[in-house]
Specification:
With 118 residues, the protein is an all-beta fold. It is built from no helices and eleven strands. It has strands spanning 2-6, 9-12, 17-24, 31-38, 45-51, 57-59, 67-72, 77-82, 91-99, 107-108, 112-117.
Length: 118
């Protein structure tokens, strides 16, 4: 599966952005889709994931209550709605996919940059 992320940009603290990630190459089914992020000088970290079939979601503690991951099955697209953004959310955001039976995320998008100014 190929992933194309978009929607990043510059926003002031307290603002909102919505990231999109379109999957192509096959129709998603028994998969997880996720967002990760990597800030300058830091390791990549998990942000949120969604079970494509059930819609069940998981979030990192740092974004709970502010970020929402969702999916549009017909469009094969996953979204990350980010509200009440903070400067520490500044990072390059990557979408990723894996089949449920696979332990690690195996497909990655190119990333989209989110910059939050104070």
């Amino acid at each position: 599966v190929q992933l194309q992320a978009s929607g990043g940009g510059l926003v002031q603290a307290g603002g909102s952005l919505r990231l999109s990630c379109a999957a192509s190459g096959r129709t998603l089914g028994n998969d997880y889709m996720a967002w990760f992020r990597q800030a300058p000088g830091k390791e990549r970290e998990f942000v949120a994931q969604v079970n494509w079939s059930s819609g069940n979601t998981n979030y990192a503690d740092s974004v709970k209550g502010r970020f929402t991951i969702s999916r549009d099955n017909p469009k094969n697209t996953v979204y990350l709605q980010m509200n009440n953004l903070k400067p520490e959310d500044t990072a390059r955001y990557y979408c990723a996919a894996r089949q449920i039976v696979v332990a690690s995320y195996e497909a990655w998008g190119q990333g989209t940059l989110v910059t939050v100014s104070s």
